[in-house]
Write a structure and sequence with these properties.
alpha/beta; 5-stranded mixed β-sheet; 12 helices; about 40% helix
Length: about 325
């Protein structure tokens, strides 16, 4: 690997970041408005400079080598410093950007936050959002190395290199199919005990404090079926006699599309905040600031839409 920085062209690093982000040579070329041969030539030059293939073919795309994974964090940090320095206090213009934001978002937040954000960018065909899976993403490491731009979670951290901001509150409700044969009148703790539940697998339930609250109150429930994603809940609940303890905002959104009813939880649940978490060096970046503002605006807009559609749901 050469140590002579004079041989490095900034465009080579931009190409490297685009290929790493898209995982595909053709997509990276389209993102940068380059021909595929031009981008491939740039990648070949960079490979020679770092003495590593950087990417190897996998399926219809490419995957990064160990060297590329070790490079992406510093490269993104360097490009970010340059972008921020050049942009200064300029506002981010999504119609002129070719940026992809990588976000980790809990299932329960996706139907609330993403549609309003996507509506803001869908006509630009430039800015892209990429959701990364919670189960396989080490959040702290990914934020640190630049493979993740933003995390939306009910948990925060006290590490000095991160910033966090509250987006909203994560409340809890009970969902059941409409006209459930065992639910007449107010929902009680006895209903929780007597009716079988659908729930997330234990390691995913650990992200909430539901089991902790149930144990504290000595409430035992029968979990008939466990799933790995919250999107499974509304359909299964609507077509069985199972019930579920479910995030309130997601439940209110789902109730607009599935024949389910929301019931208040018959015990006290500790309030949980929903946080945006990001690395401090992105705080003043115009694009990242735009993304955070879109997330906050989307949350407010979604709550207003839910209330306008069915005010009764918001009181559950």
């Amino acid at each position: 690997m050469t140590n002579d920085l004079r041989k490095f062209d900034l465009n080579l690093l931009i190409v490297f970041e685009a290929v790493f982000t898209t995982g595909n040579i053709s997509k990276a070329a389209r993102q940068l408005n380059q021909s595929q041969p031009t981008l491939s030539n740039s990648l070949t030059r960079l490979r020679g400079l770092v003495d590593d293939p950087l990417f190897v073919r996998k399926g219809k795309g490419v995957e990064p080598t160990t060297k590329a994974i070790s490079m992406i964090g510093p490269v993104r940090d360097a490009l970010q410093i340059i972008r921020t320095g050049v942009a200064g206090s300029m506002e981010f213009e999504p119609s002129l950007s070719k940026r992809t934001f990588r976000i980790l978002i809990l299932d329960q937040l996706e139907p609330i936050l993403i549609p309003p954000v996507v509506r803001q960018i869908q006509d630009h065909q430039s800015v892209s959002l990429e959701a990364v899976p919670l189960a396989t993403t080490p959040v702290v490491e990914s934020l640190n190395n630049g493979t993740l731009d933003l995390a939306l979670s009910v948990f925060t951290n006290d590490l000095d290199e991160f910033e966090c901001e509250v987006v909203g509150c994560a409340d809890l409700v009970v969902i059941a199919r409409k006209d459930h044969p065992k639910i007449n009148g107010p929902f009680t703790i006895e209903h929780l005990r007597e009716i079988s539940h659908i729930a997330l697998i234990p390691q995913m339930r650990a992200l909430s404090r539901v089991d902790e609250a149930l144990q504290r109150l000595n409430i035992e429930r029968h979990i008939a079926y466990t799933v790995t994603k919250m999107w499974s809940f509304p359909y299964i609940v609507a077509n069985t006699d199972l019930i579920a303890l479910f995030p309130g905002d997601f439940a209110r959104a789902a109730a607009r599309h599935f024949p389910i009813e929301l019931q208040p939880v018959p015990f006290e649940v500790p309030e949980q905040q929903i946080y945006m978490i990001w690395k401090k060096n992105l705080t003043d970046d115009p694009g990242h600031r735009w993304l955070r503002n879109q997330i906050k605006s989307a949350y407010r807009q979604s709550l207003m839409e839910l209330e306008a559609a069915d005010p009764a749901l918001m009181t559950t």
